[in-house]
Amino acid sequence: MAKNSMPRFKLGGGKAKWLVGALLVLALVLIVKAPIEAATFGKSVFGAIDTAATSVVTFFNSF
Fold first, then answer.
1. Residue 14 near residue 22 (C-beta atoms within 8 A)
2. How does pLDDT run across 4-56, given as a tens digit for each residue?
């Protein structure tokens, strides 16, 4: 038989696995209970990441 060629995502120790699981459950609860607020929050988070990345690129391009 052939082995499964799909790589598995390993989280490591128990605390990291528990933390990622808790964050996923919290995100799902937020999306189900308040989808509009969750979308607004996600948009603002990704907007902040985009602004930070643009600032860093602009800084390094100034050299």
1. no
2. 666 676 656 678 888 888 989 998 998 899 999 989 988 999 999 999 999 99
Six-digit token string for 4: 């499964």
Angle at 17 between CA 49 and CA 53, to 5 degrees: 10
How many Å apart are CA 13 and CA 11, to the nearest integer? 7
Q: Would you give the distance in Å from CA 19 to the centre of its chain?
A: 13
Nearest to 10 by CA among 2, 1, 20: 20
| Residue pointed to by tokens 């459950």 | 25
pTM reported for the whole predicted model: 0.54
